[in-house]
Amino acid sequence: MATEAGAKRVLVVDDDPSLLKLISMRLTGAGYQVENADSGKQALGILETFNPHLLISDLRMEGMDGMALFAATRERYPGLPVIILTAHGTIPDAIEATKKGVFSYLTKPFDSQQLLTTVADAIRLHPTTGNDKADKKDSDWREAIISRSAKMEELLQQAHQVADSDVSILIHSQSGTGKELLAKAIHLVSDRKDGPFIAVNCAAIPETLFESELFGHTKGAFTGANREHVGLFQAANGGTLFLDEVGDMPVAFQVKLLRALQEREVRPVGATQPIPIDVRIISATHRDLEKAIPEGEFREDLYYRLNVVELRLPPLSERREDIPLLVNHFLSQIQARSRKQVTGYSDEGMELLIAAPWPGNVRQLQNVVEQTVALCNGPLIPAELVQKALRDKPSALPSFARARDEFERRYLADLLKATQGNVTQAARIAGRNRTEFYKLLDKHHLTPDAFRE
User: What letter does residue 313 receive in the DSSP assignment?
Assistant: First the structure.
């Protein structure tokens, strides 16, 4: 039994100290990691950090009883299995509890083997924990998400639970929280993991190009359509299409998207026949779409089509325990691609990072880490640099595409200045052939002659 249990976590709640100690000893002896609570209120506090695989609670307790605790737990941790402990006189109540979603109940007094068997069954049959082989099989689906937060763990359990249902998912969160990482994680743990994952930022597509980008177009469909274009729906066929910032989608296109989702087919611009599609939709937004509906900015029928399951990704300010983890992750990335020998932050600097408001969330944190590393002259980043970075970057950060374009333009200009417009020499320094280098110059409207003396 100890081997089978592994390191599974169990939270036991009972206001009888003797019974609480007895159950804890039996579970600990079987190899489980156990936390105890003598009241429902204390249990809710422990749940913030413990992340159990199973909750065991007495039915009759002073203050918050077992069913009140179950209701509160079900609201915040809908996938967590619960076992209720009951006396003979309350068996009818326990039976009613199972109808409401309680996994099982145990009648006091119960023997040790009955307890261990019921606990093992609850954990084995629970969809978010599974057995050891299943856990190992998809242990890498979430590795890109750096977190030890209880809120994030709750969210990831929900994401795992709905991944295989193929229903549409709406991720609601602030900008910079990692919506695409969560969408990709859901794709990787779903039955579609071997298919493509295509991400598109709806806010970055011009209104006139929406239909062409998502549905595709035929050659000659409009002026400038010199060749056939495969749309993103077709590109994602058999996989997942992630629509980021779906709240910024033009209202005129929303009805066309709704029809495509209902009929499971798209018609490229200029085509006469529709093309069947098999795509799972995950969308994301920072806007309150329920408020946008009465204002005529978002279609109600499309909202309910996209929002079959809603996942709320917490902002960085609600998961501050993740900040040191994220900081170390970004530092490792910087060290891997540069010669900077920065080992970390001073205690005061880390305290400033943990306490900062982070309106730009994880994206802003990454920007601050990169800035402080770039300006640091020693192995330890002082608090003064952190204060300066936070003061200089209070909120809005450029998009990745904009930041990359600005870097490319400045880099190419610096190369041309250094080589006085010698394209051959500049291309060699950049590690690109002349043809590729000229394309980059054309992209940024840079003329080599302008840099020649």
Answer: P
With respect to CATH, is domain 318-392 assigned 1.10.8.60? yes
Q: For the chain, which residues make up each domain, given as ranges?
A: 2-125, 150-312, 318-392, 400-451
- Could you tell me the CA-to-CA distances from 197 to 190, 240, 244 in Å, in that order? 11, 5, 13
Query: Which residues, at least 6 apart from 104, have a Cβ–Cβ distance to it below 8 Å?
Result: 83, 84, 98, 118, 121, 122
pLDDT in tens, 186-241: 999 999 999 999 999 999 888 888 888 899 888 877 777 778 888 899 999 999 99
- What pTM was computed for the model? 0.60
CATH superfamily of the 150-312 domain: P-loop containing nucleotide triphosphate hydrolases (3.40.50.300)
What CATH number does domain 2-125 carry, 3.20.110.10, 3.40.50.2300, 3.30.70.920, 3.40.50.300?
3.40.50.2300
Question: Is the Cβ–Cβ distance between 57 and 50 less than 8 Å?
Answer: no
Give the H/E segment covering residue 59.
Answer: none
| 283 Cβ contact partners less than 8 Å away, ≥ 6 residues apart | 168, 169, 170, 171, 242, 243, 244, 246, 306
Query: How far is it, in rounded angstroms, from Cα 41 to Cα 63?
Result: 8
